[in-house]
Automatic annotation (TrEMBL):
Family annotation (InterPro entries): Cyclic-di-GMP_PDE-like, EAL_dom, EAL_sf, GAF, GAF-like_dom_sf, GGDEF_dom, Nucleotide_cyclase, Rev_trsase/Diguanyl_cyclase
Residues covered by the EAL domain: 602-855
Annotated segments matching region Disordered: 265-285
Domain GGDEF: 459-593
PROSITE patterns: EAL, GGDEF
Coiled-coil residues: none
Native organism: Saccharopolyspora cebuensis
Keyword Transmembrane in annotation: yes
Gene3D superfamilies to which the protein is assigned, alphabetical: 3.30.450.40, 3.30.70.270, EAL domain (3.20.20.450)
Protein name listed in UniProt: Bifunctional diguanylate cyclase/phosphodiesterase
Signal sequence region: none
Keywords: Membrane, Transmembrane, Transmembrane helix
Transmembrane segments: 29-51, 96-117, 129-149, 161-186, 225-244
Length: 871
């Protein structure tokens, strides 16, 4: 019971009609079936004439028993599918040898035909009756002829049962030969070595079955109650046989489940569906061909139809494995699964349909598909219907789909639905990892992947970065939702312009485009165009928001003496070019190596600043301020200076903005504040009452803990708050007024003097001054320097002085460099002057020397000494 070939019927191969749609091969098989039938009839006639018929009343009992034996042998089978032919392990040799030993040829032939053809018709698989009838006749006629010839030749030498044994074995070999012939007619092929091994195995199984039948006959006929013993052994063998059949089926089903799961997983890992592909879609339906084919092979079906919804927004895709669907079935296929009568499937159970016992609507659907039997099961995911599987018609077995097939298809469908759900989830996670959720464009990671692919292919490309500006203002006025809408709209505009070129949103309002095979001149034109596109007004609800943009680009073509650029370097260079473009006229700049040196220097300044504070490279200088018109020295402004060991004396305008942008400004402010308070304490100890002004940044005004640190420093040095002045610009306050104003009010409540620096260059409105808790206003030096030559500047200065006094504010003029300016300020009633006429910023040592040389001590009304500037 190792392996016995069976196909379509009880003994020998029964090739399927639906297994081959080629009309030539179908006609060839029909002709082959007629030849087999004629050969079977001729062999039966010859055998009937050769073997005499002996009638007895026992035949009335033996005939039905043989028919039942043949029918039972067909039910106890293990089916193995080899290409288009099904091979079956069965007990057919047992009733055959019993018939050779006990009944005439005609009775055995009738029993075999009655069991085989009757079972075929009863199971609605009588489409191969000519071929099956011919093979059945040959499988009975030839063994009887061989048995008669062997017994006649070896009469008196061999036992009587030797001839039937040899005849039964010829039946097995005959069945194997017809199976191979049918395979060849159908267009298949089997190597000679494989065919030889199959014949040997068939002979071995036939010999085993024949021996079992012969031993059982001898025991039953010669031993009292032998038939009972044979029955017990037969029941045990049948049980063992069925258990082995079930185990083999389970093993094959598990292999099929594993293959299907692996096929689904591998189909999601094809090279054409890289995660960084901006046009990435759900995998094409062709990738599911191995899955459909594996299901078809496992169920030995003529056709498997997979109807899959690979994209939730797309129509159902159809994949057919095996025999193609008729053209009319393709044309009439419904767009929705629920519209097909075979696929109106509640739950996730398998439904079986046959043309003989189904409603008319289902029969019409089956005829349209060219099928007489179908299994259908939905593929349901966690929250939706993912598709359906149809299995049409058995290929190699006449008995149709059984309960084991239904169970397997249900399990396969469950695994397939789970795998599809997992794959969708994986695809969504992969997409989210490489795409920006707001715009749907690539993110930085996805852009790097796509750009790296282009560069690895050896293509010269330009990375273009475009930044959309004024979004901070939009967010403050309308909220972040509206600024997000502007970003999404800008992304759509750019996508329309660049087509399929890789486009990404890097962060915030920054976009990047990869331009393959472009020169820098072409990239400059594209950059100007994209900058104009995203700078066009944005209609938001009932308002129109103006926008601006800057662009920078960098080419992968290396400059002379430079190494080749990778993606990260190109992005960095494009970022440097964007920063340079902000200071340009047209807002578009290409990267030049010199730009990298500038930003490298800035980077070095940032990384070295903390060490510079600790090592004494950063110093505080002081520029004196005098009261008008009496010229009393009332204080000084603290100004930071950095003596860099490599770059020398650095201008504050070079390193202070960099320090502010990187968050180190808190350390800088704390350093200047501490040194200023130390200086004030020294002056107080000498009897001098002078204040020091310290500049604040945007970050200081946004720090709610800053007033507490100031109060602690004042207590530690025992200094009155009015001797400390904080200077702030209008823009620093208006950058985040909701956070800045509470900080300013706490400082003002402490008694610290607050001064508005560079007044006249920012908002400079009366309403602005009224809402700020300030004590001083400083006139920007650009107006003071222009008083001598421009009447407009003089009018501005006079207006600021009058405005400040009307609000009870002290007015300080910066940039006083000559006596004429000082006299004009005195005439206008300005309170304090500061500038080169009085003194340049001085180090602590030089400040002390300046105070001794250019001032005289005047005892005030209190115990403090007042310094008055000498003429």
């Amino acid at each position: 019971m190792i392996e016995r070939h069976r196909s379509l019927e009880s003994q020998g191969p029964r090739p399927p009609v639906r297994a081959e749609v080629d009309p030539v091969r179908r006609r060839r098989f029909t002709a082959f079936s007629l030849i087999v039938l004629v050969a079977g009839l001729l062999a039966s006639g010859a055998t009937s004439a050769l073997v005499p018929f002996h009638y007895s009343t026992d035949l009335l009992f033996i005939g039905p028993l043989l028919a039942m034996g043949f029918l039972l042998a067909e039910q106890l089978t293990i089916d193995v599918d080899v290409r288009r032919v099904g091979w079956t392990i069965s007990f057919t040799e047992i009733p055959l040898i019993l018939g050779l030993l006990t009944a005439p040829f005609e009775v055995v032939l009738a029993a075999n035909l009655l069991a085989g053809l009757g079972a075929q018709v009863g199971r609605r698989a009588a489409s191969h009756v000519l071929y099956n009838a011919g093979v059945m006749c040959l499988e009975i006629a030839v063994p009887f002829a061989v048995a008669h010839a062997v017994n006649a030749a070896l009469a008196g030498i061999a036992p009587v049962w030797f001839g039937p044994v040899v005849g039964t074995l010829t039946s097995s070999l005959l069945s194997c030969g017809f199976a191979l012939a049918a395979l060849l007619v159908l267009g298949g092929a089997m190597r000679v070595s494989a065919g030889g091994r199959l014949a040997v195995r068939t002979l071995a199984v036939g010999l085993l079955n024949t021996s079992v039948g012969l031993v059982g006959f001898e025991v039953a006929s010669t031993t009292p109650w032998g038939w009972l013993l044979v029955g017990l052994v037969a029941a045990a063998v049948i049980g063992l046989y069925r258990a082995y059949s079930g185990l083999l089926r389970e093993q094959r089903d598990l292999e099929a489940l594993s293959d299907v799961s692996l096929s689904v997983a591998r189909s999601g890992q094809s090279p054409g569906h890289g995660a960084a592909d901006p046009d990435e879609q759900t995998s094409p339906v062709a990738e599911w061909e191995p899955v459909a084919e594996r299901i078809r092979e496992q169920l030995n079906a003529t056709r498997v139809v997979l109807r899959l919804r690979l994209d939730p927004a797309a129509d159902v895709s159809t994949l057919v494995a095996g025999e193609p669907l008729p053209a009319e079935a393709e044309e009439a296929a419904p767009a929705a699964l629920r519209d097909d009568p075979l696929l109106q499937l509640p739950g996730s159970h398998v439904r079986s349909f046959r043309t003989l016992d189904s409603p008319e609507e289902v029969r019409r659907a089956l005829r349209l598909r060219g099928a007489y039997e179908a299994l259908a099961v939905p593929l349901r995911g966690a929250s939706q219907l993912l598709g359906a599987v149809e299995v049409h018609d058995r290929v190699s077995r006449w008995r149709g789909f059984g309960r084991a097939d239904v169970r397997l298809l249900h399990t396969l469908a469950s695994h397939l639905a789970t795998a599809m759900d997992n794959r969708r989830l994986l695809g969504r996670l992969r997409h989210d990892a490489y795409h920006d959720p707001l715009t749907g464009l690539l993110n930085r990671t996805g852009f790097r992947e796509r750009a790296a692919e282009e560069l690895r292919a050896g293509r010269v490309a330009v990375v273009l970065r475009v930044d959309l500006d004024v979004l901070t203002t939009v967010s403050e006025a309308l909220g972040h939702t509206w600024s997000d809408r502007m970003i999404a709209a800008a992304g759509r505009r750019m996508r329309e312009e660049v087509g399929q070129a890789p486009l990404a949103r890097l962060e915030a309002s920054s976009f990047a485009v990869l331009l393959p095979d472009r020169t820098e001149e072409q990239a400059h034109e594209v950059a100007q165009h994209l900058r104009a596109v995203i700078a066009a007004p944005y209609p938001l609800d009932r308002i129109v928001v103006e926008a601006a943009g800057v662009a920078g680009y960098s080419s992968s073509a290396p400059a002379v003496g430079e190494p080749e650029n990778d993606v990260d370097v190109l992005l960095q260079h494009a970022d440097v070019a964007v920063r340079a473009a902000r200071n340009g006229e047209d807002g578009v700049r290409g990267y030049a190596p010199a730009m990298g040196q500038v930003f490298l220097r800035r980077f070095q300044l940032v990384t070295q600043f903390r060490q510079a504070l600790d090592s004494g490279q950063v110093e505080v200088h002081y520029q004196p301020k005098v009261a008008l018109p009496g010229r009393q020295v009332v204080g000084a402004e603290a100004l930071v200076r950095w003596s860099h060991p490599e770059y020398g004396r650095l201008d504050p305008d070079e390193f202070v903005p960099v320090v502010e942008a990187t968050g180190l400004v808190d350390a800088l402010t704390s350093f200047v504040l501490e040194r200023s308070l130390v200086k004030i304490r020294e002056w107080l100890d000498r009897g001098l009452r002078m204040s020091v002004a310290v500049n604040l940044s945007v970050r200081n005004l946004a720090d709610e803990a800053f007033p507490d640190r100031v109060a602690e420093a004042l207590r530690r040095h025992d200094i009155a708050p009015e001797l400390l002045t904080f200077e702030l610009t209008e823009s620093s306050v208006m950058a985040d007024p909701e956070r800045a104003l509470p900080v300013l009010r706490r400082l003002h409540a402490m008694g610290v003097v607050l001064a508005v620096d560079d007044f006249g260059t920012g908002y400079s409105s009366l309403a602005y001054l009224r809402q700020l808790p300030v004590d001083e206003v400083k006139i920007d030096k650009s107006f003071v320097l222009g008083m001598g030559t421009a009447l407009g500047d003089m009018a501005v200065v006079r207006t600021i002085v009058e405005l400040g006094h009307s609000l009870d504010l002290v007015v300080v003029a910066e940039g006083v460099e000559d006596d004429a300016a000082r006299e004009q300020l005195v005439a206008m009633g300005c309170d304090v002057a500061q500038g080169y006429l009085i003194s340049r910023p001085l180090s602590e040592e030089r400040l002390e020397a300046w105070l001794r040389a250019r001032t005289k001590k005047v005892r005030g009304t209190r115990s403090e000494t007042v310094l008055t500037l000498l003429h």
